[in-house]
Amino acid sequence: MRIISILLLLSLTGCGLAYRKGIEREGRKFVEKYPAYIWMIERAIKEKRIVPGMTEEEVIKAWGQPTRKGEAQIGRHYYEKWVYERYENGEFAGTDILYFRKGVLVFWLD
Question: CA 105 → CA 11, 15, 45, distances in Å?
Answer without folding.
Answer: 21, 18, 13
